[in-house]
Write a structure and sequence with these properties.
The structure holds 2 protein chains of 2 kinds. Chain A has helices spanning 21-34, 41-51, 58-73, 84-91, 100-116, 118-130, 145-168, 172-182, 193-206, 210-231, 234-237, 254-259, 272-276, 279-300, 304-319, 330-338, 340-356, 362-378, 384-404, 415-436, 439-453, 459-462, 465-477, 496-502, 519-525, 539-547, 553-570, 579-591. By secondary structure, chain A is mainly α. The chains are: A mainly alpha, B mainly beta. Chain A: One of its GO terms (cellular component) is nucleus.
Amino acid sequence: MGLELPKNPDMDQDNVVNFTDSEIVSHVKDALTSLLSGDSNSYNQLVGVMHHSKQLAPDEVALLETTLKALAGAVSCIDITLHDSLLSAIFSMSLWNYGPHVADALVELIVSLAISNGKYLDLCLGMLVSNFTPPPYFLDKLKLPRGLERKGQVLSRVHAAFKKIADYVPLAPLRLLTMVQQGMPTVYHKDRAILIYVENMLTLESGEIGELVGSTMLMAVVDRLIELDLEIGWDAILQDDFSKGIFEMELEDLEDIVDSAEPDIGEFRLSRKSLAGNSIAELLDNLLVLTFEHLESCERAGRLAKVFETLLRSFLLTVMTAYKSKFTQFVVFYACSLDPENCGMRFAIMLADLFVQDSHPQSTRMSSVAYLASYLSRAKFLSASFISSMLKRLVDWCLEYCNTHDVDINPNAHRVFYSGCQAIMYVLCFRMKVFMDVPRLKSQLLMPLEQILKHKLNPLKVCLPSVVEEFLRQAKAASLFTVSKTFIFDGLLESELSRAFGGLERLDTFFPFDPCLLKRCDSFIRPMFVFWSMVKPTYEDAYDDENDDGSSDDDSIQDFANENEDIMNDVGKSFDEQQLDLDEFDCALKKMSITPKNSFGYKFGGRFQEPTRMPSRIRPSTSPESL
Amino acid sequence: MEGLSVADADLVVYLHPSKSSKVSQAILRELSSSLFKFNEAFGGVLLAYDVNILDKQAKILSGVHPYFGVRLKANLLLFSPKSDMLLEGKVVKLSQESIHVIILGFSSAIITAENIRREFKYKTKDNEELFASRSHKRHVIKVGTMIRFLVKR
């Protein structure tokens, strides 16, 4: 008994026996029910067909396909305890091993099983989720065209199956959620299956059941990113060089690090070199890039605003509370850059709101303002008017604080205040040039700022010396105000007092959006990122004047005025139009004969940059900034 | 439709101390998390609730985390189908072997071929699957039809 199909159905035309679908189904039903009466021959044959699944000849493939289809029709006869060997055989089959027809039949069977009885639902969903990742032997083949094709086949069927099951069993997505979260490979799995698993999770987010499962998927992905992020220890990659400051040469190019003789790296900067061989860093890099690409597709589909809400929630819950997250925050940065008007501004406003509210714990507020400062300084896509409005909020808050606290310097007691002041100074170090040329901004911001800085609380003494020094230098060059006392820090990066206000977590030296050291990520972030080298500090104009050999003073002043005009016009313009700045920049740079021509090889075209090799612009000994 | 019932319940909801600043929100959250799930204590699936907080005071449990218990009075809508009850649902899938039904938008049920009345014959007409009654010409079950069925188990 049992299924008897001709050996070569396409060959043997004479002897071919055409079974109808219903006949085959009833055969299978008989095989299943016969087990009850003790006759296990046909049943065992069935199980045998399921197990025999590798290196199949064409007729065996046909047999498997037919059997699967027949089983799909006979699901009502399958008993969970009686036919457990058959069921375990079915559930251990991997879609990756088969061609499209068998895969279709298998998926049909799984869906039928899932909707026929609640007992099978979890098992079926589990089987589908386990098909997110290919069997071990296949992982290497994923990069090949054949592997990619198979991947597309399998994953499209898996996700379609989820939708079908959800149609007939409305609460299935709830079960699916828990399964997917529990099934996530840990970061310690050598086979890096997590990459393709996360890809699947993101597909679920944007898929047809995305509305139901999407936000949980996204939050789970961010959770995993943070986990990886925290695996990369700060101590493993810091270099103890206390002499260099934050505003020294930034690590823009890997070649530079390799070329330069001395370690020009400040204490609080990570070294890209030491991350190069780190496999966890590589994994995090790839996962971040996956997330970036997913955000891009969300933006194209017009869903970014909704996804961004989930991202923000996740950021507040996971990223901000993690101790000095290193790279995960760039996910939010990238999302903001894709939609500067909505998401970009929303992020900054949220951070500012967090900072000013008394009800939040101290470290949250300090961390929030650190994020805000770093974000406002580094985001190229934010308009100057928006940055100034954010700054004004901070200044107003600090001024209010000063007026209500008429006390002396005390780093421990006024941590939030000092972190606020440091944030303002940090942003102004990057953006001062832009603001100085707009009189309205000048008066709105500077008058109160001067009051704050000259207050008894003495933020200039407490805040991070390198930030204060740079700020004062620029302020002096721009003739903003002069301080009566001289602040001599001797290029110190930090001081007793700054450590005091920073506390155990060292929030005084937390600059979360410092250049991303993960290579692939960096290529995404670079076009909308402000590097310190791109900033033209106010004192460089003075340096210009000194260095002008041939040209007269009038010329240089005229040039300066022209630049300022252009910059004034640029205030409030969009990110694209600010490219004009670069031309002015280049112009000014050419006057400095030391630096090579065409130093800014950046191509600020679209966002989707090929990782271009930057010409190494900075030679440690000749760069003007290192002087 | 049988199986639906409204119950009055006295409940105590235990909340984590961090929620003490937004108690009502936490209570609603707690109750919402048990929606559409079978609850042993209620003896059915919770479909909806209407809550009144009884006391402004709550008892704090001693232990590692001082959870506090808030007393509530609630009206609960429960769904607890038993054998031999009649239920109504919408047909979502038809096949030779079975009819799949969704009840109240969240619960799925399946009626297998042996449980479908003999008078219904499975037909495929114009690519549409349906069960047509032999005795009453107009009586047809298609995808989207509401049907009433008896609960077996």
